[in-house]
Amino acid sequence: MDRGLLDFVRSDAFRKLERETKRNYGTDYRTLLNSLFLRGLSWQQATRQDLADYRNWRCDAPGNPERISGTKWNREAAAFTKLFKWGKVYPLPVDVSQREDRAADSVSARVSWLTPRTWGLWSDVGLRGHTLARVASPSWESRTELRNTAFVQLLLSSGLRRQEGGGLLLFELPTQRLRRGRYMHGRLAGALTRSKNSRTYYTSVDAVGQTEAYVQSERAWAVQRAQETGRYERPAVMQQMLLITKVTHGLKPEVEWVDRNGVVSSQELSSLKWRIRQWLFLEGPDGPEPAWLWLTEEGLPMLPDRWNGVFRTANLRCEQVLLGEEARKATRDLRLGEVQSKSPYATPHSARHSFALFMLVLLNDLYEKRYGLTAKDRRDFALLFGDPWWLVKTLLGHADVETTKRHYLAPVAHLQLESILAAADTTDEGEDIEDLNGVFARLARETAGIQDIDVILGKTS
Known about the structure:
Layout: H1 3-9, H2 12-15, H3 19-38, H4 48-59, H5 70-86, E1 113-114, H6 116-127, H7 145-158, H8 162-166, E2 176-177, E3 183-188, E4 199-204, H9 205-228, H10 235-238, E5 242-247, E6 254-258, E7 264-268, H11 274-277, E8 280-284, E9 287-290, H12 307-322, H13 325-329, H14 337-340, H15 348-370, H16 375-385, H17 388-396, H18 401-408, H19 417-420, H20 436-446, E10 450-451, H21 453-456
Parallel strand pairs: 1-10, 5-8
Antiparallel strand pairs: 2-3, 3-4, 5-6, 6-7, 8-9
Helix pairs in contact: 6-12, 7-9, 7-15, 15-17, 17-18
InterPro entries: CB (IPR044068), DNA_brk_join_enz (IPR011010), Integrase-like_cat_sf (IPR013762), Integrase_recombinase_N (IPR010998)
Keywords: DNA recombination, DNA-binding
Protein name: Core-binding (CB) domain-containing protein
C-alpha cells in the first residue's frame, strides 16, 4: 500500500474532482505506478526522463500494441501533474501546462457524427426494437423505451452533455416557448457544466413534449411502484432524503429543503451538484418522490454515467439487426471500416457532436436561402450577430470557437461556410432543390467520420 498515494486520494485536490474524473485518473495512476515499480521507483522519485520514457512507450513505441492517442495522453498528463504538484515533486516530471508535455494530435478518436436520418434509424432499431423493415419486433420488450428515446431527443436537440442533460430536475425542464418558434429555452445550472458557469440552453418543442410524455407515463408508473413497495421509506433512502419545501424564482433561484432531522437548508439552484440533486425529493399526491427527472425502473435517480449502458445496449441491438453473423464475431475495433459503416454507433457525446454539425448546416442554410444574404450582407450580419461558427460555439457553451471547430466540427472545419451548400443541386432557374437531408448525405460522402443512412443501408455506391 502506497501511503503517499492514499493520502493524495483523501486530499481535497482529489476529492473535489468529478466522479468520472476520479475513476479515469485512478486508472491512469495505476498504469504509471506499475511502470515505475518495474524500474524500482516510487512516484515521488520519478524524473522528467522517467516520464518521457513512459510517454514514448504509451504513445509511440512500435513494441506497444496498445498505444494511446494524443487526447488520451493529455488526460494522463493532467492526472500526473495534479499528483506530482500535490506531492511537491520538483522539478515536475510532467507539466500539462507546458506545450512540450502535451500532444499536438489531441483530437478525440471517439468522436462520431450521425446525420438526423441515421439517428432515426439508430433510435428505431436500438431503442424501440424495430426490425430492418422499421416495424416493432414481436419479441421486443422495453419498459424504459419512452425514457430512453426522450433523453436522446433532448440531447440531440439541445447539445447538452450527458451530465448536463442527465442531471436535470423536474422543474428545470423548459417551459417558455420562443415566439413563433419550434424551440424552448431553459437555464442550465453551472454546477452541472464543465465550465461551472450557468447558461441558457435551447431545445425543441418536440423533445420537451416527449420528455413530458415520459414524466406522465413511465416515470409516474415507476414512482407509483416505488411508493407502493415502500422503496422511498427504506433507511438507505430516508437517511439521505432532502424534502424540498420551496423553490424561489428570479435571476438566482434558490432551493430550500428539510432533512430527516428537521434541519432546514437552502442553496442556489445553479450551485447544486448532482450528488445533492439525487437526494432531493418533492412532496407528491401520494408521498415523496424524487425531484430528479430521469428515473430507473425502481423509481430511483438514473445517475448520468448509467446512460453509457443504454447506448451500449442500443449499439449491440443495431449490430444484431443490421450485421450478419460473421461480421458480429469480431469486436468493433477489429472490424473492417466497410463493416463498421453498416451499423450506426452512438455514444451520449455523439448527440452533442451531431447537434453541432446540424446547427452549423441549418444556420448556414438560413443565411443562404431564407435571408438571401449576399457576401457583403453576410459580413455585416456576422459583425452584428456572429457567423454560424460563433453561434454554434455559443449554443454548446464553449469559451473558444477553435474548440468548436477542432473537436466538434472536424469533418467540415476545413470547408468555407459558403461552400457547405455550394454544391447543392439546382433547377434550370437556379433554385435549390437539395433539402437538408441531401446536404447531410453529401457531407457524409465527402468527409470522414459522418454516419449516414444511405451508406448504412447500401443506398449509395
